[in-house]
Amino acid sequence: MSNVQRGRSMNSFCKLGSWLVAGTILLGGGLLRGQMAAGISQANGQSAAATFSASAAAKAKTNQTTSPAAEAAASSDSGGTDVTLQQLIGVALARNPGIKSALERYRSQRARAPQARSLPDPMVSVGWMGNITPFSVQQGDPSSYRGVTASQDLPFPGKLALRGKVADRQAEADWWGYEQTRRQIVAEVKAAYYAYFYDTKAIEITEKNKDLLRKLESIAEARYRVGKGIQQDVLRAQVEVSRIDQKLIVLQQEEQTAQARLNTLLYRDPESPLPPPAAVKPAEFQHSLDDLYAMAHENDPGLERDRRMIEGGQDSVKLAQKAYDPDFSVAYNYWQRPDMPDMHGVTVGINIPIFFRSKQREGVIEASHDLNASHREFDDRWTTVNFEIKEQYLAAKASQNLMDLYAKAIVPQSSLALESSMSSYEVGKVDFLSMLDNFIYVLDYEVNYYQELSNFETALARMEPLVNTDLTQ
Predict the structure, then answer these.
(1) Structural domain contains residue 96
(2) Which domain range does residue 437 map to?
(3) Considering the entire predicted model, what is its pTM?
(4) Would you list the DSSP string of 226-279?
(5) pLDDT in tens, 168-198
């Protein structure tokens, strides 16, 4: 072969190699850009809930698009105006880092499904055999060559689809994990709000009754000065005032704790001031225990998550069984040889699972145990849901009955008894201790009513994540 022919052959080989490499890079770049565009579209244009429910998608979209200015306006103090529960829930949904973390975890898992369904990256290699100079061959030696090889691994049909289904089920499980976190944060905000409401109301009632007790103390002192009373009555009134001061200290500490808890859930500084809570009215609770069981079994996010894990485990078992099926590889080869025609070749390869006893078989066993574990986790969650429903239902019913008893009987009766004893004490028909006992009863019963109201609403709030129904309205 002449030098001119060798130069032309060298140029044609280099051009072919360059085109193959460039084509591979462009193909890979196009796929990469497509995946990046899909990822950006998924991150910006799709809410986490779009796959499962329109209503949940609207909530997730609201959470994602809330501007910092809107969040600041929602969370700022309103000049002493009472803050409502719905305002705090809106801020928590927009700002709480636990909710955002769960949402990002779902998005991360969702991005794995396209990866699981994709073929392995193709391989392109360029090489030569002969002289040490790159891409040069030895003249007169037919075994010397320069060549280009392009290869692609091909999993056995069905494997990629199963891998994608496993990734989809895991993403759906993470979605329900996000939904559980979101509902739980809402329930925690409600519980903290009701505690804040009770503490505020208890402080208000206690301070009002402290003023009343001061008047009783003044009456006892006046009677003592004119010789119609005894010093013991004055001292007992003073002791009771100190006892109320002690109770106020405890209530104020509990109120500050409730404020700090709310601020934490709202992702605010624990020391940030909060307006006083708006009034809370008892909810209309008409659901039976059996209805709540049925609603929880259908709507609990923990059960839904475990159901997706079971479905994913079943697909994982099928995928492990597919591992017995061999994978393939296909390669195209092009060679240039000195003084001989160019050569083209195709190679087809197949892997042989000869180590199936320690590899494929153990993979099936592993996947089967994981599936069994998912079934047991579902059973455990089922019984846990039943217990939580029963526990909160009994707590709500007990508090509801006590509220009715306080509102309709105990508080009115004790108030009348206090008024009667105060009138009788002023004319000397009742001793001071009897009047003071009636006063203590009224104070305790009024505070107890709001304690049971808080307990009642909190019990309903703790059931809401399980049944996916607003019970506190």
Answers:
(1) no
(2) 175-323+360-467
(3) 0.77
(4) TTSS-HHHHHHHHHHHHHHHHHHHHHHHHHHHHHHHHHHHTTS-TT---PPBPP
(5) 999 999 999 999 999 999 999 999 999 999 9
